[in-house]
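Problem: given the chain below (327 residues), write out its structure.
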Amino acid sequence: MADSAPLTVRELKALEAIAGRTFASLVVIKKLAVKTASNGNAFLSLELGDRTGSFSCTVFGDNPLCEPIKAAGEGAVLRIEGKVDYFQGRFSPRLLNARIVSEDELAATPGLIDSLVELSPEPSDALWAELQRTIDEIPHDEVRLTVRAVFEEIGESFRWAPAAVSMHHAYRHGLLEHTVHMARCCRALLPLYPEVDPSLAMAGILLHDTGKTIEYEGSLATHRSRRGILQGHVVLGYQLARKAGIKAKLDPDRLERLEHIVLSHQGEPEWGAAVYAATPEAVFVSMIDNLDAKMGMVQRALRQASPGDEFSERLPGLNTSLLTKPL
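Solution.
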């Protein structure tokens, strides 16, 4: 029988791989996919996690836990008991028992939801205040009014949204953190590149991912909305920028250049860009976006690393594992 006190995901990953060792934990179903094995049998591929990290595991179709977990779906909270196991060097336990934690139980236990939701490591109030100051500091009047109009339309959703489902800054306030970090990079790098218009560059950074406030939804588990699937955040952000620019009477040339930054910021069409970056500002913003996205992956992997680990698990966005052992 597992210990009654639930362990965090970080604590689970620090456990030694002792055969037969059991544990208890409280986790959110972050991802759930029904797949088919080579023998034709269906199984569940799960990503389970809490505030400290996540792990993958498999539940086969003949397991009595399969149907209840499948019915619970993404975003459900589970109290699990399992047996420590690893697959290809990654923590991948075998589930022995699982119970769905009701909404009433979540609401009745102080701090329980907070223990399950991963947050930005920086205080969101401070990040939000910095974002507002950054908008106010944009030199060009109509560009500044355009940015302000977008944030008035999307409201507070921007400060809560993740920046991704799984790749980078994929946690509450992650979009705000990512955008503020990019703005800091912009200020530091602008003196090196006088060819880049400061107002357009900063506006492009602040608006480039605003479509994600529409693309993503969900509180405990993030998934793409209907509009997110059908249009994507690049197009949704372009629509927000265009509407706001027309409202602010931004001149057609600057509006077209601002729209282009949003449409091209993903860098490559295979990564979601509508076009390749073709202005100084668009190239500048795209490179800063790529830098902060990758460094965000690095920072998260370092935060979630167990003390005894030398390398992280493979990070898809970096195509490698990361050396996490400190100097």
